[in-house]
Amino acid sequence: MADTDEAAIHMPSQDASAHIEVDLSDETQDFRMLSNISFLTDGTQASIPKRGEKDFEPNPTLYQADILSASRQAMHNALAYPRVHHPKNQIIGVYAPNGPAPPTQHTSNLESIAEGSPLPDAEVPSTTAATTTTAVGNVHPDACVYIANPKSNLFKTIGQADRWNRIWLLPEEALFMLERGSLNIHWPRSEVGYDEDEEEEDENNIEDSEIPMSLQAAYAAFASRGGLNSERFSVYTGLRRLGYTITRAPGWNDDGEDATGIEDSGLEDGRKQGAGLAGIYSRFMKWLCPPSTNTALGPVAGVGFHRSYDDIYSKLSIIPWYDPMAVPQAARSPAQAPYRVVFHVYKPSTPFKKSAPPPPDFRIAVVNARAHTSVPTLSQLGALLESTPLDPPTSEKMSRQLYMRLRHGYRNVILAVVDEGVVSYLRISEAAFGKEKLYKQKALANKTQYRPKPKPKPKGR
Amino acid sequence: MASDPLLPVPISYIAGSYFLFSIDAVTYLRREHHICGVLTGTLPQIPQQNVFLGLPLKLMPEEARLLVEHGVACIVDEVKAQREGMSALREADRRKYRRELESQGAHAMRLQTNRKEQQREAALKRVDAKKTAAAKKAAAAATAVGEAEGEGNAAHQLLPPPTVPPSYPLFAHLHAEGYYLSPGLRFGCQYLAYPGDPLRFHSHFLVVAADWDEELDLMAVVAGGRLGTGVKKGFLIGGAAQPREDESGLGLGDAGSVRTFSVEWAGM
């Protein structure tokens, strides 16, 4: 056992450089790598082990059987790790099966306003966008766990506070925190068979039954609650584990209205003006050199004097192309499930404020590969892309590099395709090849003589 | 090694997916029945990574179906079972459960403090004694949240076997031949077939199922063959030749009549 562990720990260092590009989560990793770190007894060592070696096929040697059983034992040990909460700094949440509600404190009569409507929030139609004002303040109606003593760094990006200084968690947030051992959720007394004649131990906390909820019970309670499903949760928790901040997008509910219309209304105005100017310019150009209406009678470039190649090329471009900057003429068709943005994702480096979330770095739509086996149609993709705001490649770096512009596109969205717990991410962007006039690029390059040509990235996507 | 779970193993049906929450069941099914599933949970000891994941284990409907057909597992409506189980909980159970968890927690804490003691003693031998003055005493008790509970009264929450895609006969056939199968999305196929436990072996085949009379696009075969060769795996295509006789109306093929073909790009 000790020998094999040592062998395994020495192996990755030899071929670490060869595997540097490999995504470790792509294949099942050897859990023996993990067992070299014993977390229960020593929490200081916490680096992720490197990739191990695998064999080609089973052979009947005892050696191989030993390694395999060691691997399985390591996996067993890793999975059997208990979630331990220190009594001093544990965070306790209480499950509220009926949704957000004001605290029931039998001693106080201050909450008489809220008391008039005991549980109105469960009935609030959740069709509207992210936050609806409920009786408990700015808490999402799908929230179902509250925390009275929110002391954790995680609450910088998770949860919503109510008037009583409690933090409410959405089902995916509660499940994620419970899973990572950062939260201890208690059952409410209404859900467990509670003996009425029992003495009240804690006057302030009569909802809390003090029975911890198991992971299994938490999955049963939260995994299908408020529009959550296992595919969406896989995406949520996978990105959270990698450090991203991830919030629900307005497209979360299937019948919800997209709020993105408001989001890019500012852009809309500017775009109209731009289109207007461009329109005047093109009308002027048309007047200046009328296009030959019938190319069958002569050369496409037209007869006459041609003073530069640009003129000829622009006359040769007779194939119409789609301009993503143009204002869509037809009313946009709403994005249909599952091709709707359900998550907004922020990089760890993006400063995030819960009260005023910045524009997201990524927008994600979640697709179940088992339910939707074919590539989305153009109209599905079009509607999905139109539901995202315009994001033209305007940065300084991109204004120089043609291929980066093409790759970035004018609108973009990420499709998370989930096949039974395995997630693949695809970035879909609306590239505008028509806007990149290569002949003008060349002219530009000729003018500024010694500019090195932009090198296309080898990573083909 | 792990203790074997009581058979049949309950598989939790939650939100359209099949989950296993018991570590003993996970280890047992992996060892004895070649069912690996996909770990989807966060490991509490290292929560900020995606390489090693923890419970629950998510099973494909095919895997759940296979286990039910072999009589090893049953499907439980977990949402209903939890709700009824918890409302039936009485004060005595409540106290007992809390006591158990607290003793588990105390045990974990003892392990932790023992380790700390050992470390401190080692440090004492090496470094000056003044350093240890800063070391703090850990608190006495802790509570741990158990993994599995309330499975005892699950018997009346049983659900029928899962509905499976038409590729099930091929899945069952390859499984019977000793292959370990996992979802194949990462390599653009239906399943990945491993010759042994994926912990130790690379997969050999990219598996795609087809109906017996289905007309295949030759381009798809070429594409699959090239893809498989590119990732050092074989492209395997197969399906059941005869419809199954004993099943009524499900239209599934007979796993016994499955034939398989592997395609390799010869590069000529």
From TrEMBL, chain A:
Q: Which Pfam families match?
A: tRNA_int_end_N2
Q: Where do transmembrane segments lie in this chain?
A: none
Molecular-function GO terms, alphabetical? endonuclease activity
Domain named tRNA-splicing endonuclease subunit Sen54 N-terminal: residues: 76-187
For this UniProt record, give its keywords in alphabetical order, as a comma-separated list.
Endonuclease, Hydrolase, Nuclease, tRNA processing
Might you report a single GO cellular component term? Answer: tRNA-intron endonuclease complex
| InterPro entries in the cross-refs | tRNA_splic_suSen54 (IPR024337), tRNA_splic_suSen54_N (IPR024336)
Q: Which domain of life is it from?
A: Eukaryota
Query: GO terms for biological process?
Result: tRNA-type intron splice site recognition and cleavage
| Family affiliation | Belongs to the SEN54 family.
The protein, known as: Putative tRNA splicing endonuclease subunit
From TrEMBL, chain B:
- Write down the Pfam families for this protein, in alphabetical order: tRNA_int_endo, TSEN34_N
Q: So where's the catalytic machinery, residue-wise?
A: Y194, H202, K233
Q: Which domain of life is it from?
A: Eukaryota
Q: Which GO terms describe its molecular function?
A: nucleic acid binding; tRNA-intron lyase activity
Q: Which residues form the TSEN34 N-terminal domain?
A: 9-78
* CC terms in the record's Gene Ontology section: tRNA-intron endonuclease complex
What is the purpose of this protein? Constitutes one of the two catalytic subunit of the tRNA-splicing endonuclease complex, a complex responsible for identification and cleavage of the splice sites in pre-tRNA. It cleaves pre-tRNA at the 5'- and 3'-splice sites to release the intron. The products are an intron and two tRNA half-molecules bearing 2',3'-cyclic phosphate and 5'-OH termini. There are no conserved sequences at the splice sites, but the intron is invariably located at the same site in the gene, placing the splice sites an invariant distance from the constant structural features of the tRNA body.
Tell me its family.
Answer: Belongs to the tRNA-intron endonuclease family.
Protein's recorded name = tRNA-splicing endonuclease subunit Sen34
Say which species the protein is native to. Answer: Aspergillus violaceofuscus (strain CBS 115571)
